[in-house]
Design brief:
Layout (H helix, E strand, L loop, with lengths): L1 E6 L8 E6 L2 E5 L8 H4 L15 E3 L5 H4 L2 H6 L5 E5 H32 L12 H8 L2 E4 L5 E4 L2 E7 L7 E9 L2 E7 L22 E5 L10 H18 L2 E5 L5 H14 L9 E4 L1 H12 L21 E3 L3 H6 L7 E5 L9 H8 L6 E4 L8 H6 L4 E4 L2 E4 L3 E4 L9 H13 L3 E5 L3 H14 L7 E2 L6 E3 L7 E3 L3 H4 L5 H17 L1 H5 L3 H23 L2
Parallel strand pairs: 3-4, 4-5, 5-6, 10-11, 11-20, 12-15, 12-16, 13-14, 13-15, 16-19, 20-21
Antiparallel strand pairs: 1-2, 1-22, 2-3, 7-8, 8-9, 9-10, 17-18, 22-23
Helix pairs in contact: 4-5, 4-8, 12-13
Length: 538
């Protein structure tokens, strides 16, 4: 049995684990890589996935970092079944089409931008289209929680509650080869116990191999009461200054929990009655309707009756672009929930543009911010950000409230993992950054009663071969392909050459008319400012 790590390996996004066993080749998830341009370039390396050779896919939940490359695989020849729970099917259908729309809009913007500049780039092609997304949705096959099925001879799968978002599951697999059966559990993303709108994650019997997320492997979350109090403080801060509270929020799961939390604050008189709440994400609005559909299967039915047509609790849903743009000129305090949660796409970027430089405004982060994303830069304390080709000062107050996270914290992960490690399961940490993974691995070893506990931390493009009774074989990944070396010598030499050219052409510049010289001076000053900002980031 071979397992290839094509994403969520020493990083959080792009979750995809390809398994070759029992005569089948299949994947657990196929998510989009999110971060800076170098990380997102991995999305275009579709040849690594070999879509035509994939028999089926097991989808743990609908989030784009777990599902977002399904349309690309469908476009490039994948025709197998994609198994998921019923709520995941409904949510993924919305999210994949929304993702495709974003790809198409970004392509259109880049082509228009390049046309104005007289340039053209091969990367301007959309990653996939709306038609590709719809093709992928036709391959989704719903399955019930806690009901075992057999997608291929010798492979049995059971979906169990993971408590992360509506429909999220961890996978319990039994794979039989050569008369021997190996049990593997893939956690997907694990939710924190006691989440407002979800079932807690189930606890599986100890498997032979446990592949578990480690997003918050190095820290814990605050409790629900503290979390609501922090949110109330952020709201009070901006209300007292007459400014807006901007909340970058994932459209599926986080927005619905925030809506419920804001209702709780309103009922406790901790949210001013005249402070409107705007949900500015068409996807979040449609996802809220899905939550209403499944409300009776949740812990609480409070989301029933909250619809885009309702307006109760002073909650308003902006359905079109004009309504969204109107929020940027709206006077007075307001709360705006908008996607994307990591600020790397969508309407949230426009709300940041109009508010992040305002003293008295609040930017409230309620979810994980991946390396390379705009959200991560703000959370890490950037004094300015570049948005829409403009440098903006970060004058708004930044709040980070991890208690809203849909991921289990460190102690909650340990509570879930340790019973399995003590029973002899071998642990593989995925879906986390190295610092968090190493901290969690140390704690697992320290708290396990076994001296032979094994914890593995695979890297991007690494393969693991699992054979019963034999030591695990690890094939080192191709470093050059996984993380191409940055040639700093070339970059600095190129910069030196440009400066040398500037010095050579100075006399030519001095002979130009004064008006032209001032234009060149201003452009050079702008370049110098950009370089100063660049140097401040090193």
């Amino acid at each position: 049995m071979k397992i290839s790590f094509l994403g969520a390996a020493r990083t959080v996004t792009g979750s995809c684990h390809v398994i070759e066993a029992a005569g089948a080749r299949f994947a657990v998830d196929c998510g989009m890589h999110q971060g800076n341009p170098a990380i997102e370039e991995r999305n275009r390396q579709s040849g690594l996935y070999r879509p035509r050779e994939m028999d089926f896919i097991l989808l743990t939940h609908a989030h784009i970092d777990h599902s977002g490359l399904l349309p690309l695989l469908a476009a490039e020849g994948f025709k197998g079944n994609i198994y998921c729970t019923h709520p995941t099917l409904d949510l993924a259908a919305l999210m994949l089409e929304d993702s495709a729309h974003i790809q198409e809009m970004e392509q259109e913007w880049k082509q228009s931008h390049d046309k104005r500049r007289g340039t053209k780039r091969d990367s301007d092609k959309a990653l996939y289209t709306t038609e590709d997304a719809r093709k992928a949705v036709t391959l989704l096959r719903p399955v019930d929680f806690d009901k075992t099925f057999e997608p291929h001879p010798g492979i049995k799968v059971t979906y169990r509650y993971a408590g992360h978002i509506l429909g999220a599951a961890f996978l319990d697999l039994e794979i039989t080869e050569g008369g021997q059966t190996t049990r593997l559990v893939f956690s997907g993303d694990l939710g924190r116990p006691g989440a407002l709108l979800l079932h807690d994650a189930e606890h599986p019997n100890p498997p032979d191999w446990l592949f578990v997320e480690s997003t918050y492997g190095d820290r814990n979350h605050r409790g629900e009461s503290d979390t609501l109090e922090e949110l109330a403080q952020a709201i009070a801060y901006s209300y007292s200054h007459g400014e807006k509270v901007i909340i970058p929020s994932f459209a599926v799961g986080r927005t619905q929990e925030l809506l419920y939390s804001l209702i709780l604050l309103r009922e406790r008189n901790q949210l001013p009655a005249d402070m409107p709440i705007f949900v500015d994400s068409p996807l979040a609005i449609r996802a809220t309707e899905v939550f209403e559909k499944y409300a009776q299967t949740l812990h609480t039915p409070e989301l029933q009756g909250i619809s885009p047509k309702d307006g109760s609790y002073n909650i308003h849903f902006t359905l079109n672009t004009e309504e969204s743009q109107a929020l940027n000129v709206l006077q007075g305090p307001a709360i705006i929930l908008s996607a994307s949660g990591m600020c790397n796409a969508g309407r949230i970027k426009h709300h940041l543009k109009h508010n992040i430089w305002r003293e008295g405004a609040s930017i409230v982060f309620v979810g994980y911010q991946a390396v390379g994303t705009l959200g991560r830069k703000i959370v890490d304390g950037a004094e300015s950000i570049r948005l829409f080709n403009d440098d903006l000062a970060v004058a708004a107050k930044v709040f980070t409230i991890n208690g809203f996270s849909a991921h289990a914290g460190q102690s909650q992960l340990l509570d879930w993992i340790l019973p399995m490690s003590k029973a002899g399961s071998r642990i593989v940490l995925i879906h986390g950054e190295p610092k968090a993974q190493e901290a969690l691995a140390d704690l697992i070893k320290k708290n396990s009663s076994r001296d032979d506990v094994e914890v593995f931390i695979p890297d991007y493009l690494e393969d693991m071969t699992l054979e019963p009774g034999r030591k695990v074989a690890v094939e080192l990944f191709n470093t050059a392909k996984a993380r191409p070396r940055v040639d700093w010598d070339f970059l600095i030499a190129d910069m030196d050459a440009r400066l040398a050219q500037l010095r050579e052409r100075r006399s030519r510049a001095e002979q130009l008319p004064w008006e032209e010289q001032t234009e060149l001076r201003d452009r050079l000053s702008e370049i110098s400012r950009e370089l100063a900002v660049f140097l401040s980031q090193i």
